[in-house]
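Review form for a predicted model. The reviewer records the input and the model, then writes brief findings.
Reviewer: anonymous (R2)
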Amino acid sequence: MFVKSFPEVSADPGIRRQVLSDSAELMMVAFRFQEQGAEGKLHNHPHVQSTYVESGAFRFSIDGEEFEVGAGDSFVIPSGATHGCVCLTPGTLIDTFSPRRDDFL
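Model under review:
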């Protein structure tokens, strides 16, 4: 078994990002939101993304549709969809990307 260790880095104000595992086909990343109101700014990318809410509460927007999620919730963001979130209660999102997000390495 091959295990790599990746550093935790600043993503946006109040948000820390850490790659948990990766291969060319798949990547898992933790986003740790440290304060209420921290914002994952609207963006899009060609990767399919699956998000699992490990803890906390968040308001997400995907292509203009808003919804709230909390611990234990999960959803998929299609390739190319414009999305972002606002932290309602500090917590952690676990995102998987297919293929890998090389810009996170």
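Findings: Strands lie at 8-12, 15-22, 27-33, 39-43, 48-53, 57-62, 65-70, 74-77, 83-89, 91-98.
Further findings: The chain has a mean pLDDT of 96.
Recommendation: see findings above.
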